Amino acid sequence: MHADGGIVQNKRSMWQGHPDVAYFNRQIYVTWRESENHKANKDTSIKLTYPSNSDFTVFKSGTQTIFKSKTGRFNCPRLKVIGNKMWIICDFVNSAKKSIQKEDDKGLFSGGKSSFVDAENQVENTSILRKWTKDGTHWSDEIKTNMTGILPDRIFPTKDNHFLVATHCFKNFMPESPAGSLVQSVWRTNDLESGSWIKHPIPQRVNLNLCEGSIVGDTHGKLMCIMRENSQKGLPAFVSFSVDQGRSWSDLHMTRLYGCHRPSVGRLNSGRYLITYRHQVSSFKPNFWARNVVAALVEPDEMFSPNPCQDTIMYPLDHDNSQKPDGGYTGWVQLDNGSIYIVNYITKDHRRAYIRYYIIREEDF
Fold first, then answer.
1. What's the pTM value of the predicted model, to 2 decimals?
2. CA 75, CA 66: separation in Å to the nearest integer?
3. How far apart (Å, rounded) are the C-alpha atoms in residues 225 and 15?
4. From the CA atom positions of the chain, what is the Rg in Å?
């Protein structure tokens, strides 16, 4: 059994992926990246659309373009409603600075490394930009920041009136991190309109590559950042806790969420926690890549225990039966009626990835 859902956007001439969703002014908004392919480093744009019916199941054909670039890559957008504004945050990879080696006509450097991987994780190539809207149509100018890294999490408001964003990058640009090729940081500010943020690295562990962090808090103000482990070994997600509103982060705790890629975590109205993610326990070989996307339901006392997420209930959202699967980056919100609205990108029987939605309830678990 898989979750009920439908198509948000399927533009067959373009790759569409890395979606997120927000519930703002009683309307669903969905954003995603559109480009020639997954590894594009030019002609990328960040799109936004919304449903045309009250059940949020029929989407209008028109879209807004929020960010656009002829060179470089706008990558993974996230949406967040804060007060009377909906914010969008997105990483940008500057392909013009991507290499310290010469790239050949196959997109490979002299050392054999893909230009896509080489560019996107090098902190000197990256920047984080934001915009906001009060009506879902008219957007502010770009707000540039001093944040670096890729795959920013949603902006997270803290109880002491600050804001957090998680990003990651290669280790060699963060000498304070003792281990791992990828390192996770959390950025903090007290002024969303400002471009100035302070970086707080999360402790590392030998041989772990932590990335794609997502932040959530309990009702008392304790915070958790849950992270993908990217050593291609099917290892579980790891978490780090903060008890000072994101200024410092604990040593790592291992979960039982194996193969947890790009987790998207939040607290439901019931007090339980939901994590949606790509389930990738097998190798990264093309035929075994990005086949499944799941949701995990976690009890409150389990979520923030010293051994978090040991007992969870898993729900299969979708399976990609494509010969060239690609998908599993998700976002979700809970609606006024208690239903959970999830977005994902997937390929299935199409030539390129496209955007789908799913609607589930806690009772489905």
1. 0.93
2. 12
3. 30
4. 19
